Amino acid sequence: MPWERTEHAVAREFYEETGLNVTSARLKFCYFSHVEIPVNLAVYEVEAEGQLRASWEGTPRWLPATALRPLLLPSQKRIVDAFPES
Length: 86
Description:
Blueprint: H1 6-18, E1 21-33, E2 39-49, H2 65-68, H3 77-81
Antiparallel strand pairs: 1-2
């Protein structure tokens, strides 16, 4: 929501879409792109707890970055590139 600070939006969206409560959030970077579609993103690294659950937006699942990368638009690949493979 436009009046919301990004760290509050991260916690709210994370909970709404996964059922997990954010216990720690660290801003990694922000970026803007107009390559494929206009994007204005704040990328956070979060720690969360709780029970993973589905929402009206779909069923969340954990994927390694190698499986996620081909599903992203070229301008979004910067997100997974910012996190080391684990």
